[in-house]
Amino acid sequence: MKIMTDRNIRMLIAEDEPHTRDVLTHYIPWDQIGICEIYEAADGRAALEMAQTLKPDIILSDIRMPKMSGIELAHQLRKENQDCRFIFLSAYTDQEYLKSAIQIRAVSYVEKPINSSELCRAAETAVAEVLSQREYRSQICFHLQNKLCLAYASGNIGTLETEAAAANVALLCGPFLSASVRLYPSEALPWPEYEEEILLNYLKKHMGERCLFALKDPAHLVIHQETNESAETAADNLSALLMQIQEEIPRIFPQIHHVLSGIGSPTPDTAHLYCSYSQAVQARQRSFISSRPEIYSRKGTGSYSFCDACAENAVSAIRQGTYSDIQNALFCLRHRIRQYSDTSCELVKQYYIKLLLFIMRRSEDRHGTAFSELSASFVEALGQACCLDDLTEILLEATDCFFRRYPSSENTRIVDKAIDYILRNYSDEKLNIPFLASQLYLSSGYLSLLFKKETSKTINQFITEVRISHARDYLKDHTLSLNRIALLTGYHDANYFSKVFKRETGCTPKSFREGL
Prior knowledge:
Oligomer: single chain
Strand order of the largest sheet: 2-1-3-4-5
Structural class: alpha/beta
């Protein structure tokens, strides 16, 4: 797993000769090499003081300077900063200096008069070493944070906090609260299939520094948030952030249809974070009803019995009402259920399947066959629904199907229309299951199930196959860049396009083009 690392490189130039220092500071293309911040010092002592404060990644130093030599400077800083890279400058080819430079692991030793190309090559080597070291440490920190986050959720912390502190991983210092997030797949799959690297980098950007998060598995995300606010304010702020995540993730990842989350109560220390996480899981289960982040509360609002006038009106409308009657009754029923946060999702699903059976009976009473052929797909879609909104949408789709009296070949016709739309719009990066379903006036879950049954492929799989097929043709045109081909085939990111192409064909786009 690759996690984004900071690529900002800081360099300190230590040179006592003003003209040389000015040239080094202003006339070498450091930004093209990747060095973004340049600082300068006129002698070794000043360089030491600045380095202790600035913590530069690279020091470009003359060897012979007043007050402190470059070698002495390096020896002093090595005690405090093992990762700093040194490049030495000298008009002397003294073997002792060369030996000292080797001993302190200098990246390079550039003789004066300075050759700018040689200096740039030395700087490029130093930058590469700095970034490689950052990447290595970032990976170690990421894996330790991941293990620590999951350990907090289970309560089995052991020596992980000590290991993390030794690796300079920033530890949470309380108070805390936890969140449980569930990711539901767009397709009829046990897990959503998405690029974990992109998801984790998205979370790293949005969750802030004082937060730990980890994927328990592809469908479950664990979050621990440090806070210094009141319990109510902290929960409200985390709820607002999770609501943003719930709305954005399905737009960014077409493989994820819906996101639900729950938040536990604050706890003063990490030893009891597992209690907050356990509460968050319970709260998340309640979010099936609301589709919003739920904050844990010992006092629920009870369980809906489905025995009042609202439930009876829904049955009556389905048995003999118009589409508008049924729509209004289902919206009323959804509103009623949301008043009872403790209602189990299985109980709600069972009732909605019962309502579907009433629609089937009404169809049979009219000697209808088209709806009966589709009913199994609707039952399966209701069973896999991730929230009350999904259940309502699927049942309304079933109702619409009944009133339109689909012919017996409707399954094939719907899938043919979906395939035709994909073939005509594969270059649209917005093309995903929810968007396609909206164009066909169907629910995402129902369209996914129907497509898989008719073609033995998922919609995302078919879209990818169409895009990669066209990419093969575009690669034959050597005037088209890979960035352009990525855009033409519906990928806004050329790196992601290359990953998908290699996964589907076994080779990179570049290798494929070279083999033509």
